[in-house]
Amino acid sequence: MADTGITGEHIVAPTAAADDVLRVEHVNKRFGPVTALRDINMHLRKGEVLGLLGDNGAGKSTLMKIICGFQKPDGGQMFLRGEPYEPRSVDHSRALGIDTVYQDLALVDELSVFHNMFLRREKIHSPLPFLANRIMRNEVREALDDIGVNIPRLNVPVARLSGGQRQAIAVARTVHSEADILLLDEPLAAMGAKEGAFILDLIGRLKEEGRVSMIMVLHNYVHVLTACDRVCLIQDGVISLDKPTSETSVEELTEIVVDEYRRARRAAQAAGG
Questions:
Q1: For residue 47, what are the CA distances in angstroms to 34, 93, 159, 169, 178?
Q2: Which residues does residue 213 pair with via DSSP β-bridges, in sequence order?
Q3: Tens digit of pLDDT per residue, the chain (273 long)?
Q4: What spatial distance separates the first Cα and last Cα of the chain, rounded to whole Å?
Q5: Bridge pairing between strands 181-185 and 75-80
Q6: Contact present, 188 and 223 (Cβ < 8 Å)
Q7: For residues 234 and 253, what is the distance between their CA atoms, to the nearest angstrom?
Q8: In sequence order, which ranges of 29-162 are alpha helices (DSSP H)?
Q9: What does the alpha-carbon distance between residue 86 and residue 185 come to, in Å, rounded to a whole number?
Q10: Hey, which bits of 85-180 come out as E strands?
Q11: d(CA 207, CA 82)
Q12: How far is 19 from 81, CA to CA, in rounded Å?
C-alpha cells in the first residue's frame, strides 16, 4: 500500500464478504497536484446501510461520484455483484442499478411531485408523444404509499414542499427506479430535527425491507450510529476505519479524527520549520 501519511494502526486493509454487492479496490484520484483519493478499499453488503464519514475535503463526494459514474478513477478497480464495474456515465450506472440522491436533490422546483419522480424517466403515450400523466401520477401514489411517504397532493410544485418532503421525493425516485444500490450525499444537510427524523425514519423502513443497499455521506456521528449498520471513515485519501456501528462509539470516532488532526498539524509545523 502506498504511503498515506496515516499512522499504520489506522490503515484498513481491503475487505470483502460473500454477500458483497459492491467492492472498491485500491481506487485513487488526483485533480492536478491535489490527491483526493490515495488508496480506497471499501465494500457494501446486500441490504446494508454504510455510513461514510470524513472531514470536508477528505474525498467522500469524490468517491461517490466515481461510484455513480460521474467521474473516472485514475487507478484501482470496482466490482458490482461480483463482475468488473466501470461505469461510463451516471445513466450507465443507473441502468446497472446504482442511483444517487445528490445534496442539491436534482429536483425542478416548478414541476409537480409526480413529474419530478419521473424526471428523465417520463412515461409517454404511444404512438402520440404525449406525457402519460395519469399513469405516472398513479404509479407515484403507489410508490410513495409503499415506502410510507405521506404527500397528499401530487400535482403541487415541489417548491411548496418542506425540506424533508423534498428529500423524501428524491429518495423515493431512486427506489422507484428499481435501483438496488442507493448513494445518498448528505441526506440530512441543512435540515431541522423534525425533518431529519422524517428522513431517518424513511431510511430505517427501507433498511428493514432489505430491498436496497445504501451508502450515505454523513457528518453527524449520532446519525451514523442510529441509521447505519457499518461506518467507514476517510482520512488523507484512505479508509482509516471500517467497523460495524455496534462495535464503535461517538467517542472512538471523535478520538480518531482528533488524533489525525493533531498529526496533520504537527506535520505542517515541522514542514514550516
A1: 34, 19, 32, 21, 14
A2: 181
A3: 333 334 444 545 556 677 899 999 999 999 999 999 999 999 999 999 999 999 888 899 899 999 999 999 999 999 999 999 999 999 999 999 999 887 766 788 899 999 998 888 888 988 878 999 999 999 899 888 877 788 889 999 999 988 888 888 888 887 777 789 999 988 877 667 777 787 888 888 888 888 899 999 988 899 899 999 999 999 889 999 999 999 999 999 999 888 877 887 888 888 875
A4: 29
A5: unpaired
A6: yes
A7: 11
A8: 60-67, 90-95, 113-117, 133-146
A9: 21
A10: 98-101
A11: 22
A12: 9
CA distance 54 to 27: 17
Three cell numbers written together for 181: 444500490
Amino acid of residue 89: S
Round to whole Å and give the CA distance between 55 and 57: 6
- Which of 4, 21, 13, 17 lies closest to 212 in space, CA to CA? 21
Q: Is 14 helix (H, G, I), strand (E, B) or coil?
A: coil
The dihedral over CA atoms of 226, 230, 235, 240, expressed in degrees to the nearest 10, equals: 140
CA dihedral 8, 64, 56, 161 (to 10 degrees): -150
Kindly provide the b/e burial profile for residues 160-175, where b requires at least 16 CB atoms within 10 angstroms of the residue's own CB: ebebbbbbbbbbbbbb
Residues 6+ apart with CB under 8 A from 222: 250
Q: Which residue has the cell 431510511?
A: 203
In which residue are the cell numbers 496533520 written? 264
Phi then psi dihedrals of residue 102, to 5 deg: -80, 165
**CA-to-CA distance for 152 and 37, rounded, in angstroms?**
44
With a CB cutoff of 8 Å and minimum separation 6, the contacts of 251 are none
Give the C-alpha separation, 98 to 214, whole Å: 10
